[in-house]
Amino acid sequence: MNEQTRHHGPGYGVFVGIWGALMALTAVTVWVAGVDLGFLNVVVALSVASVKASLVVFIFMHLKYENLTLKLMVLTAFVILAIFIGLTFFDTAYR
Amino acid sequence: MTEHRDYHGAKMGMWLFLFTEVLLFGGLFVLFSVTFGRFPQEFHEASQLLDVTMGTTNTVVLITSSLFAALAVTALQKGDRRLAEIFIGLTVLLACCFLVIKYFEWTHKFHVGIYPGSAAIADWAPGKQAFFSLYYTMTGLHGLHVVIGMAVFGWVWMQIRVEKCTPEYFVALENAGLYWHLVDLIWIYLFPLYYLIT
Q1: Is the minimum CB–CB distance between A16 and chain B shorter than 8 Å?
Q2: Average pLDDT in the B121-150 region?
Q3: What is the value of ipTM here, to two decimals?
Q4: Coil, strand, or helix at residue B166?
Q5: Does the global pTM surpass 0.80?
Q6: What is the per-residue pLDDT for A5?
Q7: Residue among B60, B73, B169 minimizing CB distance to A26
Q8: Chain B residues lying within 8 Å of A73, measured CB to CB
């Protein structure tokens, strides 16, 4: 086995399991949307979406199995996005 | 003669490209949230005009296609080219389903006169009009990514056929998969924001 093929992702079973979790979370988010929680609806919907996004990024996109450099790169990109969104609201929220 | 190959470089390059995609959609998500903050009531009314059943079906379709994309990479890594090709076929098939559902959703909206600049929505409150402008822009750009993703998978399928993408060097398939998962990732946020936050 050479250097390239050593970095194997997970097997079929793990992916099917994650798919099951994503389906369950989709059902949860649709169900919760029908319950009136006021502003909390937005918070819950985005939290569930973020859990789903993490499962996709770490397992489907193999980030969990990548080296530290790539993990830090992805972290940097999302931190920049958070700053971008944060600074926008710092402006618009106080008008 | 040995071909120069840089597996990690190829994958890192793909991720760098994906970051630019995250920023592209990120800008639109910022625009969405700022407008939502300004017109919460109008967004609430406009959002109820979308079909939650179709949106949920599309979420299930896209997540399942993402599963097949991930399975295709594993199959090729394990050396099963035939199975990898079948999984790629299933991914593309579900991508088609997604677009067909989207087509019916859009044409129905067009039919009842809901599209930017239509006479029917000219009297609507600005916030409600903005909701649909953003809806068509973001789901449209996302749909374009679905079409590109299908083309990329078609190309990778050919690469497997001509044995340029092999169980020993599968980065082309892995990168196509990364792109596809990003398309899925964007939909995971588009779905609750447009269909569920009412």
Answers
A1: yes
A2: 96
A3: 0.93
A4: coil
A5: yes
A6: 47
A7: B60
A8: 12, 15-16, 19
